[in-house]
Design a protein that fits this description.
heterodimer; A: 300 residues; alpha/beta; eleven-stranded mixed beta sheet; 11 strands; B: 279 residues; mainly alpha; two-stranded antiparallel ribbon; 2 strands; 78% helix; 1% strand
């Protein structure tokens, strides 16, 4: 029987290995042609690259550069979009990079404004800071879970993986399904600073890549515990009080609720000119309304 | 230069562009990812399971194991099913039935992976959570979804391999007194074996590389799974999950994850090629 497969595969082999195609000519000529074609191709690529850079010419008369926190970025983009619609001559570039990168860029003057989702540390206090919004982080469970309140300490122990059963915090006995966010997410970063301190989130925690996905899982799993931006809590999940205080709009604004962070814009000096106009727009009722519509709590 | 030569050159240039995109991608991935692997040390990078890239820990050991486990699970579920399907379609069904069933099965390949993932989250995950326990988002859920997703690959390549076996083999075997099943098992399957192995390996490549559906149903926890009901994170999910916010060394670490994935898939494809050639 062993001779059968060989025959078939010999046929397959023939199909797979095309010899020099007829009409292409052979040997030396073909090689030279390939070489020329290759160099021509890469020359073309190079030209395309240069053309791409040149095409990026600056057309707007004023450009403002805002760099920093990826948590602030989507809100800043929204604000910039509306602002640019109203002021056609102005261009606003919003860049990510993280809060620290944004603060550094503002210190160096590389960006007109730095965006930060964390408070400034002592060494950075020389910067001019403009708070633009509050963001609360709500701890959520399934509506069927009788849990109403957790202490900050309990929350930390649960996310460290030291408390693994609901019974320890007064709910019916069952393993806790922990849900966290992906490494690098602003919400996770804030949660780690505000709750975890120096400790790490348990590697056994499930990871979802957006507030919406975390909410979806918690809404479907009666034994889960997760955290999302407070503006996105709806009636399919239940926000629990932390140290006895619920993440309501007022509690976030007055900072009675513990898991709150400020979104800041920072600059080397007080903003002036076009920058000031944009900052004024963000703090105007219209700008603040835009932020509230996106789920934040305004500062005004 | 006559017109024929000109067309040849243009076609050659176009062919070159598709190859060069492969070269560019490869060079780019390695340039971005290799520095981190050298800094962390190759052994630490692939053996440690401590992944906290914003705190300077880059270990993808658990993810490599999880990727392999998920793929193995998908193979255990998908290969017998796919192979059985291919044998029925190629050997035991009428030409009319085959003309209807084969395109239908190939439609399975046209369903976007996010739809598989969505079905998994809505239907499979609650089933696992309610009847088997655990959070539902698990190694098992990912393996089941992937097992279904690789079916079209396994089935269509296996069918091609089976139909490539000449009818004289079957006729000879029947003439010697073998039953139809004996013919399939002892003659047709061995004759088509290299094609079937290729089908399995290409299915494996699809399972290792799948991202969207796996992110949605696997749970993405970084720990090594202790049971098939535990959540896992595969190499592809790791890249896709964290890409959005990654900067600096974190970004390099994701490219380094890509290198490992690249090597695994290269090994799979090479072995598929070698197996088909050796026979």
């Amino acid at each position: 029987m062993s001779c059968f497969p060989e025959k078939i595969n010999a046929a397959q082999e023939r199909r797979k290995r095309p010899g020099p195609a007829p009409g292409l000519g052979g040997g030396l000529w073909q090689n030279r042609m390939s070489l020329k074609a290759v160099s021509l191709f890469f020359t073309l690529l190079l030209l395309l690259g240069i053309a791409g850079c040149r095409g990026k010419a600056d057309t707007a008369s004023h450009a403002i550069c805002v760099a920093g926190s990826t948590s602030v970025q989507p809100f800043a983009e929204k604000l910039a979009e509306v602002y640019m619609e109203q002021h056609p001559g102005v261009r606003i570039d919003i860049q990510g990079g993280g809060s620290s990168a944004g603060i550094f860029a503002a210190q160096q003057g590389a960006a007109d404004l730095g965006a930060s989702s964390r408070e400034l540390v002592k060494a950075e206090k020389a910067l001019h800071e403009i708070p633009i919004a509050w963001d609360g982080i709500a701890v959520i469970v399934h509506p069927s879970n009788p849990l109403t309140d957790l202490t900050l300490e309990q929350l930390r122990l649960i996310f460290q993986g030291k408390i693994t059963d609901w019974q320890a915090v007064g709910s019916p006995a069952h393993a806790i399904d922990l849900i966290s966010r992906e490494e690098g997410s602003g919400t996770r970063e804030a949660f780690e600073t505000l709750v975890m301190g120096k400790t790490e989130v348990s590697p056994g925690a499930l990871v979802q890549d957006s507030n919406g996905a975390v909410r979806e899982i918690v809404a479907g799993d009666p034994h889960s515990l997760g955290y999302i931006s407070a503006g996105l809590v709806d009636d399919r999940v239940k926000a629990v009080a932390v140290d006895g205080i619920l993440p309501s709009r007022d509690n976030i604004k007055t900072q009675k609720y513990k898991l709150v962070r400020r979104f800041l814009l920072v600059g080397r000096e007080a903003p002036a000119g076009q920058c000031l106009a944009f900052v004024d727009f963000i703090l105007s009722p219209q700008g603040q309304r835009l932020l509230e519509a996106e789920g934040l709590v305004g500062v005004k | 230069m006559d017109k024929g030569k000109f067309v040849e050159r243009v076609l050659f240039l176009l062919a070159l562009s598709s190859i060069s995109s492969l070269v560019i991608i490869t060079v780019f991935i390695f340039l971005e990812g290799l520095p981190l692997i050298f800094q962390t040390g190759f052994k630490d990078f692939i053996l440690s399971s401590h992944w906290a890239p914003t705190k300077g820990h880059f270990g993808i050991g658990a993810m490599i194991v999880s990727s392999l486990l998920v793929t193995l699970g998908a193979m255990v579920l998908g290969v017998p099913l796919g192979l059985a399907c291919a044998i029925v379609l190629a050997e035991f069904s009428s030409a009319r039935l085959r003309a209807f069933l084969k395109p239908t099965l190939e439609l399975l390949a046209g369903i976007p992976s996010v739809v598989y993932g969505f079905l998994g989250v809505i239907w499979l995950v609650p089933l696992i959570r309610n009847y088997l326990g655990g959070p539902g988002l698990s190694l098992l859920a990912a393996a089941v979804i992937l097992g279904i997703m690789i079916l079209p690959t396994v089935i269509s390549i296996s069918i091609d391999a089976l139909t490539a076996v000449p009818d004289i083999y079957r006729d000879g075997s029947i003439a010697l007194g073998a039953t139809e099943w004996q013919t399939v098992r002892r003659v047709v399957l061995p004759a088509a074996s290299s094609g079937i192995i290729t089908a399995v390996i290409l299915g494996m490549g699809r399972a290792v590389g799948e991202t969207m559906a796996v992110i949605m149903v696997a749970g993405n926890a970084i720990k090594l799974p202790a049971s098939i009901l535990d959540p896992v994170r595969t190499l592809t999910s790791n890249i896709a999950l964290e890409l959005g916010y990654a900067a600096g060394r974190h970004r390099e670490a994701l490219f380094a994850t890509g290198i490992v994935l690249f090597i695994i898939i290269m090994i799979l494809n090479l072995s598929a090629t070698l197996i088909t050639r050796r026979r």
